[in-house]
Structures are given as C-alpha cells and as structure tokens.
Amino acid sequence: MTTPEGAIAARRKLTNRLIAGKDARRLAPFFALDIKVIVGDGSLILGRDDVLAAFASQFTDPAFVAYVRTTERVVSDAQGDRAAEHGTWVGTTRGVADTSGTYLATWRKITGQWVIENELFVTLS
C-alpha cells in the first residue's frame, strides 16, 4: 500500500508533466471543486474552474514552458485523510528569467484519491 507521502509526491510529479504538456483539462482531477490558490503575486483564485481557466490562459502563451513543483516534505494526519506538502517551485518562460519560490499545499483524500484543496505560492526570485 502506498503511503500518503508517496501518493502525494507521485501526484505532484504527474501534475508537473501535465502542466508541461499544456492541457488544463487533464489537471481537473487533481483539484478539489472548492480549491483556493494564492499565486506568487498574492492574487487569489477560487474554485477548480477558475484555476483551470488560469492554467489554460497561460498555456496559450507560446513563451510559457512549465511550472515545476518539487516536493520536499509531506506530513499527513493520523487518519491519513489530510496532508500538507511543502516544496519549491520554478516557473519557466522563454526569454525571461525563471521565477521561483516556495509553496505549501493542503491535500484531502476524497473517494480514495488525493486532491489539492489549497495552495500558497510565494515568489522569492
């Protein structure tokens, strides 16, 4: 049986591949319907549809390459139904310096699958 830590790290790696593939629709299963995201500039995005629309908008930019999130630590609750993921992220766009920083994500297990319910991205460079 996969641990929550292993399952979440694997799902994060898959989201990285899907972002690089620039297909926002395929990201839908990774987000709770009521997801809340604070992006690197402090803006707030509420709800899965708006998060997917934000990705879709970025994917139309031919200079956009990818966001890569690297999991550093995952801590789960005693029941194995909620977890906190901490790591670093890098955003790559052709022609400009990479942006990067740290992130915290909260995950919730819904019908046997881990989904992101909150994300906070802090831009540090």
Brief account:
23% of the residues lie in helices and 47% in strands.
What is the total number of structural domains? 1
Distance linking N and C termini: 38 Å
CATH topology descriptor? Nuclear Transport Factor 2, Chain: A
Mean pLDDT score: 96
Relative strand content: over 45%
- Tell me, what's the shape? globular
Name of the CATH first level: Alpha Beta
Q: Share of helix among residues?
A: 10-25%
| Helix-strand string | HEEHEEEE
For the largest beta-sheet, the strand count, sense and barrel status come to: 6 strands, mixed
The unreliable regions are: none
Number of helices: 2
What is the second-level CATH architecture? Roll
Rg, alpha carbons: 14 Å
* Structural class designation: alpha+beta
Spatially, the strands of the biggest sheet line up as 2-1-6-5-4-3
Extended strand count: 6
Descriptive overview:
It is a single chain. With 125 residues, the protein is of the alpha+beta class. The protein has one domain: Nuclear Transport Factor 2, Chain: A (Roll). It is built from two helices and six strands. A six-stranded mixed β-sheet has the order 2-1-6-5-4-3, with helices on one face. The longest helix is centred in the N-terminal third of the chain and has 17 residues, at 4-20. The radius of gyration is 14 Å and the shape is globular.
Strand and helix map with partners:
Blueprint: H1 4-20, E1 31-38, E2 44-46, H2 48-59, E3 64-76, E4 82-93, E5 99-110, E6 113-123
